[in-house]
Amino acid sequence: MTRTGPQRYPGASTTYWYQDKYGGDAMEVNTVVWHTTEGRSLTDYEGGAIAPNLTAVPDFTHKKLVWYQHFDFDVSSRALAHTGSVATNTLNVVQIEIVGTCDPVAHGKWGSAPHLYTPELPDWVIRDLGAFTKWAHEQHGVPLTSDVTFKAYPASRGPGNGVRMSDAKWLHFSGHCGHQHVPSGNEHGDPGLFPMAAVLAVARGGTVAESLLPEVADRLAHLTESVETLTEKVDALAQRG
Q1: I want to staple 186 with a disulfide (CB 3.0 to 4.6 A). Which of 51, 110, 182, 224 is the partner?
Q2: Helix H segments across the chain?
Q3: Phi, psi values for residue 78, rounded to 5°
């Protein structure tokens, strides 16, 4: 299959290059799958056996993401399970790992040690993720869309998490999703409550501040719903008493 467009993300290091070892299938990518490594530093992905196409590593000193590329953009990588009836790694997807966590337990454990937590990504991370997303759209035609819900971890974990796609939807999907949405034996919940709308807004040309407004409004709505539910429960208990 012809691979259209540039295959290397500008500025990405190929220090950890695994395509020569594992090969991979040629594709025409129409989907980005986002992951988190659940660690604080770049991993070797078991020698590349479970590597994505690219890894974004935070540089907290210079407030930028440092990119490492492991496979060409239009070559299948290896970060998804594929034990079901439909293809995953080879289904026209490019996979991006963000060095950080979606797990609130890990976030609390790491405390003040520098790390990324997907529900609270700094502006400069959203900026750089947006830049990559824009490049993937302009150079490879990946739609600037995502019609899936990014669910907070750990509720996002497991095959029955409520947001994982059916085989049929996955086969026809294009745009942006997370590991938590991929079927065919995948049970991981990363990247948790990922600010997908903000990243896409930046890719479309908006500022980071503008892009975060929908995220803030959505979280306030969820918070309001939770408070109302809790109030109803308290009132019900009071009436019983």
Answers
A1: 182
A2: 19-22, 45-48, 104-110, 123-140, 167-171, 196-203, 208-240
A3: -140, 20
Name residue, tokens 């019609």. 147
Indicate the domain borders of the chain. 19-209
Architecture of domain 19-209 in CATH?
3-Layer(aba) Sandwich (3.40)
**What are the distances in angstroms from CA 103 to CA 115, 154, 235?**
12, 7, 33
CA triplet 143, 140, 207: central angle to 5 degrees? 55
Please give the pLDDT value at position 3.
Answer: 85
Any idea which residue has 């079901």 for tokens?
84
pTM given for the model: 0.87
Q: Is 86 exposed, middle or buried (0-12, 13-18, 19+ CB in 10 A)?
A: middle
Rg (CA), the chain: 19
Q: Which segment of 36-40, 60-64, 215-219 scores lowest on mean pLDDT?
A: 215-219
Q: What is the pLDDT of residues 92-138, one digit of tens each?
A: 999 999 999 999 999 999 999 999 999 999 999 999 999 999 999 99
Residue 14 CA to residue 200 CA, distance in Å, equals: 26
Note the pLDDT of residue 239. 73
Task: Please give the share of the chain, as a percent, with pLDDT higher than 70.
Answer: 87
- 122/137 Cα distance (integer angstroms): 23
What is the secondary structure of 49-95 as a DSSP string?
A: TT--SEEEEEETTTTEEEEEE-S-TTB--S-S---SSS-STTSSEEE
Question: Which amino acid belongs to residue 190?
Answer: D
